[in-house]
Design brief:
The complex is a heterodimer of chains A (158) and B (220).
Chain A: H1 6-24, H2 82-85, H3 90-93, H4 142-149
Chain B: H1 2-13, H2 21-45, H3 49-52, H4 56-60, H5 62-66, H6 82-86, H7 91-100, H8 102-110, H9 116-136, H10 140-143, H11 158-168, H12 175-178, H13 207-213
Classes of the chains: A mainly alpha (158), B mainly alpha (220).
Chain lengths: 158, 220
């Protein structure tokens, strides 16, 4: 008898508690699709293939690959990337040679071939897809911040 | 021996006693058609993919490689099968290749590549045979479909344009020189053992061994 007035209240709190995490869990990859349901995946596009060198986004970023690498064989027998990018091949292929640092093993010895720790190119260097990022990002590299820090010349007063 | 040959020669030269000239002519003609048809049908049958991949050696090794490549599956569904690249299309050279293939029958019978390990061990040798054949016939089997005269350079990437308009146009290089390993996985090619112009790749097999031969530079 005395409990009756609080039943709707309990129900309200319970529904809030139930509903709250669902609101917080919006995955941009899935969109607003319930967990048990299947999403409709976006279409596959063609990777960037214009061979234009992209600037690095930050110091020491491994340069990205501006061409398609579908089906490139990189295994214990053969490395398709090195077929053009090996230092001995670049005169013919006109590709960017692999950095000299990649020929040094971890004990500092210079080798006559790419070191095992640098062998799997696409662990660091990746091809690009022309897609919009799913999550917004306001990252700016140190260079850009330095430019901001400089006193900007004021516009002449009218 | 000579007497035997002479006996058969006289039999062949002797006119027919029982069969009429008409029967022999028409019968020979029909028999010829049947023989030729059967011969070519059998020849075509040995060119089909189901024949090539009928043995587990081909099915589990080169055919499995092919399945991951653009020559097997792509957006337009045009595809190449074994014989498109490995058998010449022209009749005389095709017959020559078919006769060579008797060695492959020998390999099948004696199990030359009947395990994946044996196939891997033979892969470089087999690949070099094909590279040499393509180099010698100016990549004829590629060109059966990929005709240089009809290449639209504007639809190629800049990189491909540059290569095709220089090295391929000047006939300095042929398709196989650059496009190795497009339909099958490449084997380990020891430096200096690659065919034609590619020097082979130095793949890090064993860094410790390589260190012995390389110069220590004291970077660190």
């Amino acid at each position: 008898m005395r409990l009756r007035p609080i039943i709707p209240l309990v129900a309200l709190f319970a529904s809030l508690a139930w509903g709250a995490p669902e609101q917080a869990l919006v995955d941009p990859m899935r969109g607003r699709v319930a967990i048990p349901d299947e999403t409709k995946p976006p279409l596959l596009r063609n990777a960037v293939n214009d061979d234009a060198r992209r600037p690095r986004n930050y110091e020491w970023q491994p340069p990205i690959i501006p061409h398609r690498v579908d089906g490139y064989q990189i295994d214990q027998n053969f490395n398709k990337c090195l077929d053009c990018h090996a230092r001995g091949k670049t005169e013919f292929s006109q590709a960017i040679p692999v950095s000299a640092t990649h020929y040094i093993d971890r004990s500092g010895t210079v080798l006559d071939h790419v070191s095992t720790r640098r062998y799997f190119c696409m662990q660091c260097h990746v091809p690009q897809e022309p897609v919009q990022p799913l999550v917004g990002n306001s990252f700016r590299n140190a260079g850009a911040l330095n430019v901001d820090a400089q006193p900007t010349p004021r516009a002449p007063a009218k | 021996m000579l007497a035997l040959i002479r006996r058969y020669w006289t039999i062949i030269r002797r006119p027919s006693v029982h069969w009429s000239l008409g029967f022999l002519t028409v019968g020979g003609f029909i028999g010829g058609i049947v023989f030729w048809g059967a011969f070519n049908t059998a020849m075509e049958f040995t060119n089909t993919e189901s024949f090539c991949t009928g043995c587990h050696e081909m099915h589990d090794n080169p055919y499995a490689d092919l399945k991951n490549t653009i020559h097997y599956t792509n957006r337009s569904g045009v595809r190449a099968m074994c014989s498109d690249c490995h058998v010449p299309h022209e009749w005389t050279v095709k017959m020559a290749r078919k006769m060579q293939a008797s060695k492959e029958v020998w390999g099948k019978v004696f199990g030359t590549v009947d395990t994946p390990e044996k196939f891997e061990a033979k892969r470089l040798e087999l690949a070099r045979h094909e590279w040499a054949r393509f180099k010698a016939n100016d990549s004829l089997e590629c060109r059966n479909c990929h005709n240089y005269d009809y290449m639209d350079f504007t639809r190629q990437s800049v990189r491909a344009q540059n290569m095709h308009s220089t090295y391929l146009a000047s006939k300095e290089k042929t398709c196989i020189d650059c496009h190795k390993g497009i339909a099958h996985k490449l084997p380990y090619i020891p430096p200096g053992q690659a065919p034609t112009d590619t020097p082979g790749q130095i793949v890090p097999k064993d860094d410790a061994k390589a260190q012995a031969t390389s110069v220590s530079s004291g970077v660190n």
